[in-house]
Design goal:
This protein is mostly helical. The protein has 14 helices and no strands. The chain has one domain: MetI-like fold (Orthogonal Bundle). 72% of the residues lie in helices and 0% in strands. It is globular.
């Protein structure tokens, strides 16, 4: 191998390793801070390792806060949003990919245009609309506005376009209607992009803070990000407990990515082919 190519690879690995370390350090500091005392978390310069590892924080957090309620609400809301988007967005993507109707490309471009509209622009109209429906401070208000996602439609459509049209025609000859073709032919051949969509969408909704903060007001409806924000007090904050809650909040994402990373990478590559 030429020396220039070896040097380029070494430089690439050094840069990627430096970026990886830089992104990992905050998580390691969060993990160590969750087992410190409060004075240790306030020291400057920061103390990276505690003098005594306080593992009891991971037990006390469940007793001192409503973490279980927040965790359950976030899991339910994020799962419901993901499940509904799998259904609605796959149906829309199938129509954009294989059905022929007037104005299809214009409708698809309008769907993509939604991605360029900041979510903050539509928050007030959505809030006023849900207030008229009486859905404030409810799971309906948290879930229904996010049942369809333009990014998920785009991701599914890009993957569906890679499926040979001969497979769709063969399914029609065998008597499959569009719904049967989607369920029996298209979705089984789109597992990588399906996993990618689930990971990306679940991560986005798991970390959703602004909309639940606006739409809910009771403690029983709090999701995890809002509950953690309420742990920050006006006159003081129990930082070890807050870091413990943050550590628990990252666990579902880590587990989900570990089991789906193979399909995640493959799905992102497949979605970009067309």
């Amino acid at each position: 191998m030429p020396a220039a190519k070896i040097t380029g690879k070494i430089a690439l690995y050094v840069v990627v390793s430096a970026i990886s370390i830089g992104m990992t350090i905050p998580f390691l500091y969060m993990l160590t801070s969750s087992m410190k005392t409060t004075p240790e978390t306030l020291q400057f310069p920061p103390v990276w390792l505690p003098k005594a590892w306080i593992w009891e924080n991971y037990i006390q957090i469940w007793k001192q806060t409503e973490l279980f309620q927040w965790f359950r609400n976030s899991l339910f809301v994020a799962s419901a949003r993901v499940a509904s988007q799998v259904v609605t967005c796959s149906l829309a993507a199938y129509a954009f990919s294989f059905l022929h109707f007037r104005g299809k490309h214009i409708v698809f471009l309008c769907t993509l245009a939604v991605l360029m509209v900041p979510h903050q622009v539509v928050i007030i109209p959505q809030f006023l609309l849900l207030k008229e429906f009486g859905w404030l401070d409810s799971f309906k208000g948290l879930i229904i506005p996010s049942m369809v996602g333009a990014f998920s439609i785009f991701l599914f459509r890009q993957s569906f376009m890679t499926i040979p049209s001969e497979m769709i025609e063969a399914a029609k000859l065998d008597g499959c209607n569009p719904l049967s073709t989607l369920v029996r032919i298209v979705m089984p051949n789109s597992k990588p992009v399906l996993t990618t969509m689930i990971l990306v969408t679940f991560l986005s909704h798991w970390n959703d803070f602004m909309w639940p903060l606006i739409i809910t007001k009771s403690k029983t409806m709090m999701v995890l990000p809002v509950g953690m924000a309420n742990m920050v007090g006006e006159f003081g904050t129990d930082w070890p407990m807050l870091m413990t809650a943050a550590t628990y909040a990252t666990l579902p994402i880590i587990v989900l990515f570990v089991f789906g990373q193979r399909y995640f990478v493959e799905g992102m590559l497949t979605a970009g082919i067309k």
